TrEMBL record:
<dbReference type="InterPro" id="IPR017850">
    <property type="entry name" value="Alkaline_phosphatase_core_sf"/>
</dbReference>
<protein>
    <submittedName>
        <fullName>Alkaline phosphatase family protein</fullName>
    </submittedName>
</protein>
<dbReference type="InterPro" id="IPR002591">
    <property type="entry name" value="Phosphodiest/P_Trfase"/>
</dbReference>
<dbReference type="Pfam" id="PF01663">
    <property type="entry name" value="Phosphodiest"/>
</dbReference>
<dbReference type="GO" id="GO:0016787">
    <property type="term" value="F:hydrolase activity"/>
</dbReference>
Amino acid sequence: MTGSPAGRVVVLDVVGLQPDHVTADLAPELASLFGGTTALRPAFPALTVPAQTTLATGQSPGEHGDVASGEYDRATDEVAFWERDRDGRNRLWETAREAGTTTGALFFQHLIGTDADVAVTPSPIEDEDNNMLEMDCWSNPDGFYDDLREEFGHFPLHNYWGPAAGEASSEWILDAAATAVDRFDPDLLWVYVPHLDYAGLRHGPGEELRSAVGEVDRLVGEFLDALRADDRWDETVVNLVSEYGFHDVETPVFPNRALREAGLLSVTDDGEGGEEVDLVDSDAFAMVDHQVAHVYLDDGVDEAREALRGLDGVDEVLDEDGKAERGVDHPNAGDLVLVAEPTAWFQYYWWFDRGDAPYYATDMDIHAKPGFDPCELFFGDEGLASLDPTKVGGSHGRVDDEALGVYGLGGPAAPDGPTDDDAVDARSVAPTIASLLGISDEVATSSDYPSLLE
């Protein structure tokens, strides 16, 4: 790839998109802009937060420390999903500002506190029980969300996750992105488009997902039309990425039940008639995230390994050597890391009788649950969220050739894209964007992977 620096780079993260989706039949808007795309290979594990941080830093999870979309605090024995703020992270939309580049990021994780020139991320006002009192978003600059709300209404959080998740959230985000371009004219803008994630998790990579590609293509096309009408279109490169593709799954796996049966996991009364995991008194606990589970141990490593590797659906149990080989050897990672078989995924349940489920199990409560719960995409018989894991049709986390993301360069200032058949490594994306903007010398991405322009 060769080419001179672009004046502006827009990064569209259309999660769940794969190369065979970008065709004139399925996605005519994308296909017309990106004459050719190739596969994008995520770093292991292919999960939301690790994938996003890798794309924006050029580092593997073993380097940047985001090993899952949740965190286990060993000192306090607490698990938290989705709750981090910026916490010292320096992603390209932050580091590029040091080179005088104006930057923006919309709806990527851990944006609260970013110094990007323009940023928006959900931050609803909740009570102590995580019940939403009022919809809100954190934005930079202050007041930008208020302006977006006045024009487009509140961000539709109920369409961003849960049983009603759908295209309305992607439409709002892309409308906000067009407004950000018009008002702030950033040189670099990262935009997360979530729509395909819902179809992929509910149904897997089949016809329902392929149908949803057409919906997201239409929405992206409207955003691209707004870009084309902008004065800087001639100097624009659009960088298309996707964090992962999906596997068809049929086998839910319950590592915490196995640890409980082995006498390593303890439970306590949740105060409302259910069983809560007792993290303080447990010797082992599995923090699950799709097809990957981090197992944290106080004792009983041999017993835990024996109990887990025999589970139907477990492909690998990674120890220290295995974590190093996969690039996930970081203190934040579990003492053991489980990898599911391609047709399996991990659910956090530790109870055996539905009547013993904790009070939050049937709620859409992404902060209370100590594991990612895709059953929240389905209405339940006993509450808002389903307790039937057999409904889940797709998952991700493994890194397999059939479930890679997509990479493409388009727009009037775009250089030629990759011409070989090898998948682009996700760790090359940040260095490539820095090269596109002509700021490689000023911005250290800390990546061992070179720009694709070199």
